[in-house]
Write a structure and sequence with these properties.
The complex is a heterodimer of chains A (about 110) and B (about 110).
Chain A lengths: L3 E2 L4 E5 L4 E7 L6 E7 L6 E7 L4 E4 L2 E6 L4 E6 L8 E8 L7 E3 L3 E6 L1
Parallel strand pairs in A: 2-11
Antiparallel strand pairs in A: 1-3, 3-8, 4-5, 4-9, 6-7, 7-8, 9-10, 9-11
Chain B lengths: L4 E3 L2 E4 L5 E6 L6 E7 L5 E8 L2 E5 L6 E5 L5 E5 L8 E8 L9 E2 L3 E5 L1
Parallel strand pairs in B: 2-11
Antiparallel strand pairs in B: 1-3, 3-8, 4-5, 4-9, 5-6, 7-8, 9-10, 9-11
The chains are: A mainly beta (about 110), B mainly beta (about 110).
C-alpha cells in the first residue's frame, strides 16, 4: 500500500517556465512533508519542507503547497533552470520522533533548453 | 559534499553471502537512517538509530540488521543475500531524532548480488 504517491514518473519543462511536481498521500496522520532532490550517482539532498499547519512554504525559486483536504501537495519551481533536472522525491512523516518517513517513487524532471 | 560517508561505494557478492555496509554521519548528528533503493522503487526506509538506540523500524527484512556504535557510526548487515537484495543502500543523518528533520544523505553503496 503506497501511502505517498507521485503519479508522474517523468516531466519535461522548458527552461524559464514553471515546473509543477505533484504528490498525493493517503494517511491523514502525516504532519510533515518534505521534498528531496537527487542527481545521478549522488545521495538525495533536502529541498524544502512544510508542516501540516501551513498551506504554503517558500524558499527562493521553490514553493511547496499543501492541500490537506485533498491530501495533495505540490512543488513549484519558478523559473526552471537546467540544474533543476533531477529526480524529485516527496516524503511524509509524523511529528513524533519515532515516526517513520515514507517516500514516494520520485518524478524525473527534465528541463529543456 | 553532505558530510556523510559510506563505504564501500560498490560491492559485488554472491547469493547466500553476508556483507556489512558502513556509514559515518555528519559531525554532530546523532541520528542515522538506512534506506534501500531498488530499480523502479522509491527510497524504502529500513531503520533509524538515535544516539546508539534503535528509534524507528521500517520495511527491514529479518535477514538484515543494523547497529550504531558509541562513536555514532553505523553498520548495516545483510545476510543470506538474495538476487533481489541488489540495490542502492543509502545512509542519512540528522541532528535530532525525528524524520521530519532535514536529513543529509551519503553517496550510497551499490550492492550487486550475483
Amino acid at each position: 500500500d503506497q501511502q505517498v504517491k507521485q503519479n508522474s514518473p517523468s516531466l519535461s519543462v522548458q527552461e524559464g517556465r514553471i515546473s509543477i511536481l505533484n504528490c498525493d498521500y493517503t494517511n491523514s496522520m502525516f504532519d510533515y512533508f518534505l521534498w528531496y532532490k537527487k542527481y545521478p550517482a549522488e545521495g538525495p539532498t533536502f529541498l524544502i519542507s512544510i508542516s501540516s499547519i501551513k498551506d504554503k512554504n517558500e524558499d527562493g525559486r521553490f514553493t511547496v503547497f499543501l492541500n490537506k483536504s485533498a491530501k495533495h501537495l505540490s512543488l513549484h519551481i519558478v523559473p526552471s533552470q537546467p540544474g533543476d533536472s533531477a529526480v524529485y522525491f516527496c516524503a511524509a512523516s509524523g511529528v513524533n520522533r519515532d515516526d517513520k518517513i515514507i517516500f514516494g517513487k520520485g518524478t524525473r524532471l527534465h528541463i529543456l533548453p | 559534499d553532505s558530510g556523510v560517508t559510506q563505504t564501500p561505494k560498490h560491492l559485488i557478492t554472491a547469493t547466500g553471502q553476508r556483507v556489512t555496509l558502513r556509514c559515518s554521519p555528519r559531525s554532530g548528528d546523532l541520528s542515522v537512517y538506512w534506506y534501500q533503493q531498488s530499480l523502479d522503487q522509491g527510497l524504502q526506509f529500513l531503520i533509524q538509530y538515535y544516539n546508539g538506540e534503535e528509534r524507528a523500524k521500517g520495511n527491514i527484512l529479518e535477514r538484515f540488521s543494523a547497529q550504531q556504535f558509541p562513536d555514532l557510526h553505523s553498520e548495516l548487515n545483510l545476510s543470506s543475500l538474495e538476487l533481489g537484495d541488489s540495490a542502492l543502500y543509502f545512509c542519512a543523518s540528522s541532528v535530532d531524532g525525528g524524520s521530519f528533520y532535514e536529513q543529509y544523505f551519503g553517496p550510497g553503496t551499490r550492492l550487486t548480488v550475483t
